[in-house]
Amino acid sequence: LQEIPSQMFDSCCYSRFEAKIHDLREQMMTSSVSSSSTSLRSTQKRTLYIRALFDYDGSAADLSAPNQALPFGFGDILHVSSAGEEEWWPARHLSPPPPNCPEVGLIPSRRRAEKKERSRLKMVRVSRSQDRSVSLCTSC
Question: Which residues fall in a compositionally biased region of kind Basic residues (predicted)?
């Protein structure tokens, strides 16, 4: 075992350290109380460019799609002007938009798109398992 010098445990320094921790805790608590309407998540928005990895037609099939949904196709390059925690991001086509499509609108956020894909895959798995059970029963 190694001996620790006694000056490392100076009670004055330790008291200042404890006071500083107490002050920081108080600041954190008062700032969280005063901003209770804000989320603990980062609400910082960022601008980014994306290349679409799937087609999105913005149709009524997506029941929660806003009426200004921006259709895009696989490979389209879009400029997202404000990507945050929301489910819909404002975007515009950088390449010419498809015929009869607006140049600017709302696109599903990455989180929303991934959630929809997981839901779709779950439905496919359920329907396949139901199909197998039906085919097993018909062979009886």
Answer: 109-119
